[in-house]
Design a protein that fits this description.
There is one protein chain. It is flat and about 70 Å long. The relative contact order is 0.12. By secondary structure, the chain is mainly β. The protein is about 0% helix and about 45% strand. Strand 5 (about 140-155) and strand 6 (about 160-170) form a beta hairpin. It has one domain.
């Protein structure tokens, strides 16, 4: 994109079941940064919004419709009976944000451990542990790094199978760098291992 060039952008917002009473105001916030949900740009960016040519379009219910819609009778709820399971070890959930005020290094560490659950009908135990880390350094636009580690174990009697994956995504100002590893285990013996290294053009991302 050429600096200073105006362009028209249309963004579809997520739907919400919200009715705004007459006289109320709606706030719309715009941001150029949403890390780690969206990867930051490769260089500092200044965007200008030309309010005179901008608009927010919201659906409007015709005034002729009643404010309270008639309730529809529902029958008895239907659903499949839940699978019988037994929790053997508790899980752990944790979101931790850390910031170093000396070198301005920040990180978000996430733990999503589901513990161990036994599927009673199958006599199968499943253990899942997920670790994620998203880090960056202040105004260094090429410093963001996203790392994930997954470990899933299946156990029945003396048989045990486990998969472990590690993925790391970093960047330069022109490329995304993806490093990934997959290991498969039969008991304590590793029977398969795969490694990937990819460099992907950013293509305006």
């Amino acid at each position: 994109m050429a600096p200073g060039e105006r362009c028209t952008v249309e963004i579809e917002l997520n739907a919400v079941a919200q009715a705004f009473p007459a006289g109320h105001r709606i706030r719309l916030s715009l941001s150029t940064s949403y890390w780690p949900l969206a990867w930051p740009p490769p260089k500092p960016v200044m965007l200008s919004v030309h309010m005179g040519h901008s608009r927010l379009g919201l659906p409007v219910r015709p005034v002729s419709e009643p404010d309270e819609l008639p309730a529809r009778p529902f029958g008895e709820p239907e659903g499949t009976p839940p699978i019988p399971v037994t929790a053997l070890t508790p899980g752990e959930q944790r979101w931790t944000v850390s910031r170093d005020l000396v070198d301005y290094h920040s990180a978000l560490d996430i733990v999503k451990n589901a513990g161990t659950v036994r599927f009673d009908d199958l006599d199968l135990e499943v253990t899942r542990d997920v670790r994620e880390r998203y880090s960056w350094i202040a105004d260094d636009f090429c410093s963001p790094v996203a790392e994930t580690e997954w470990s899933v174990t299946f156990t029945r009697g003396e048989w045990q199978a486990r998969s472990e994956t590690r993925t790391r995504v970093s960047c330069t100002d022109t490329e995304f760098v993806v490093d990934a590893r997959l290991d498969g285990y039969d008991g304590a013996r590793r029977i398969v291992s795969r490694n990937w290294h990819r460099r992907i053009p950013r293509d305006l991302v």
